[in-house]
Backbone:
């Protein structure tokens, strides 16, 4: 309870770890951190700390980790952070930080993790970010970042496994340079203002597991499905809020493909105003667990072949133009039937 106590480095310069995480600390981070000349790890996440990041923190040049998530910290990230050339982990997510990303952030070439989601950061991605060639996670969702993302050259960030720029104000086309990351397993670009189409270059991502590009301004759902079907590792795909008034790709459109064999969730396809009927090629997706084509203009009846999907446990067909009877076969979906029958008490 209460504020963080004065830093013990004043009496000992040999402290390498300060961890105040998961307590009930409040108030500003006290001054004195600059006296911790041997400090490598500073952690105080999941408290109620407020105020700016302490300026003397940027004098601790041996810092390798700053982990202060889930507080109420505010103000900008000072450009002096580039003094911390040994920094590997920057975790400041779920705070109230504002301003722009430091223009010379690329000087922090050892950074592996940038987790700044859930703040109020503004401006564009600084061009020097491409010099952070050791980055494996870049998570900036839920900010107010902007700019034409197609002009940013991601191709030098070869170590990236997760890139999350969702829920910002980025515009432009999906950047071709994004597909040069051979190690990417997750891409989230949802809820921006991106346009155009997904490109076949995405097939270069041999380990892509998660893709969320929902709520943008993308077009050509048939081409998108035909390309993504061939991404053999894809398990979760979110496409909703794009492709306005286009038709769901039919069996004829995707004939010759036997893809999506590892797909578990096609959620969402919602809020696209898609037309047509549920295509039977969906019945081939035997690992599918969740299907959400709600809030469209899908017609016809609920197909009984949905009951052949052994793992399906979530199906949202709400707010469509579906008619006809509910197929009794769906009541026997294996994922909806309990293995434990009720027993009568003796």
Residues:
């Amino acid at each position: 309870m209460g504020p963080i106590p004065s830093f013990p480095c004043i009496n000992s310069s040999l402290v390498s770890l300060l961890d105040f995480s998961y307590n009930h600390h409040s108030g500003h981070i006290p001054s004195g951190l600059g006296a911790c000349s041997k400090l490598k790890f500073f952690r105080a996440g999941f408290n109620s700390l407020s105020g700016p990041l302490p300026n003397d923190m940027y004098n601790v040049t041996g810092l390798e980790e700053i982990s202060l998530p889930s507080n109420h910290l505010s103000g900008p990230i000072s450009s002096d952070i580039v003094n911390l050339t040994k920094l590997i982990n920057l975790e400041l997510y779920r705070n109230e930080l504002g301003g722009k990303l430091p223009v010379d952030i690329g000087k922090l070439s050892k950074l592996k993790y940038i987790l700044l989601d859930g703040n109020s950061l503004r401006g564009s991605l600084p061009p020097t970010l491409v010099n952070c060639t050791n980055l494996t996670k870049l998570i900036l969702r839920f900010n107010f970042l902007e700019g034409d993302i197609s002009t940013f050259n991601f191709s030098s960030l070869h170590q990236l496994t997760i890139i999350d720029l969702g829920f910002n104000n980025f515009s432009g086309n999906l950047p071709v340079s994004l597909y040069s990351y051979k190690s990417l397993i997750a891409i989230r670009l949802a809820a921006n203002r991106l346009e155009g189409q997904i490109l076949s270059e995405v097939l270069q991502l041999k380990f892509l597991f998660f893709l969320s590009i929902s709520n943008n301004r993308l077009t050509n759902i048939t081409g998108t499905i035909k390309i993504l079907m061939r991404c053999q590792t894809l398990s979760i795909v979110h496409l909703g809020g794009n492709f306005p008034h286009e038709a769901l790709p039919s069996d004829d459109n995707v004939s010759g493909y036997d893809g999506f064999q590892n797909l578990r969730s096609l959620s969402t396809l919602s809020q696209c105003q898609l037309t047509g009927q549920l295509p039977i090629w969906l019945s081939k997706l035997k690992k599918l667990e969740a299907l959400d084509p709600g809030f469209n203009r899908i017609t016809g009846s609920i197909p009984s072949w949905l009951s052949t999907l052994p793992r399906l446990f979530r199906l949202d067909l709400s707010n469509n133009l579906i008619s006809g009877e509910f197929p009794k076969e769906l009541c026997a979906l294996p994922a909806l039937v309990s293995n434990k029958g009720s027993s009568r008490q003796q």
